[in-house]
Amino acid sequence: MRLVTEYGRMDNKFADVLEYHISKMQTVKLCKVYERSGSMLVKLVNEERKTLLEFLQAVRKLEPDAVKVPEYVHEASSRELNAHYKEKLVTKVGKKVLSTIFLPWYIKGTTDCHKRK
Fold first, then answer.
1. pLDDT for 40-83, tens place per residue?
2. What angle do CA 45, 51, 56 make, to 5 degrees?
3. How far apart are CA 116 and CA 63, in angstroms?
4. Is 8 left (phi over 0), alpha (psi -120 to 50) or beta?
5. Chain-centroid distance, C-alpha 86
6. Of 19, 71, 79, 98, which one's alpha carbon is 20 to 30 angstroms from that of 38?
């Protein structure tokens, strides 16, 4: 089931804490938190009404700021790594587009030669 949180867009550390805490619940089989949309995907052990209501009550009472999280959760964060490489990729593409549009071909040729040395 997909749930939209009241937190809105989250930072990487907050999303990691939320995902860690929810995945440690006994009724949860799988949990993914999407920091950009502020939503999460949760698969419960069984889809009975009682389990669903217990889970929703637990999530409603949840305060991620008060949760103690081990250090390895923040150290091995794939969210930060993805954000780093996404920024790097956008920068490279932006430079390529701008140099293609604004630099004449004869200047581009000389800058490429200097890079190869």
1. 888 888 777 777 787 777 777 777 677 777 777 767 778 888 88
2. 110
3. 54
4. left
5. 11
6. 71
User: Are 28 and 43 a contacting pair, CB within 8 Å?
Assistant: yes
* CA–CA separation, 105 and 114 (whole Å): 15
Torsional class of 79: left (φ above 0), alpha (ψ -120 to 50), beta (otherwise): alpha
Task: Look at residues 34, 30, 28, 2 and name the one whose alpha carbon lies nearest to residue 15.
Answer: 34
Contact criterion met (CB below 8 Å) for 20 and 33: no
pTM passes above 0.90: no
109 compared with 62, residue with greater pLDDT? 62
Q: Which of 114, 111, 85 minimizes the C-alpha distance to 98?
A: 111
- Cα–Cα distance between 49 and 57 in angstroms, integer? 12
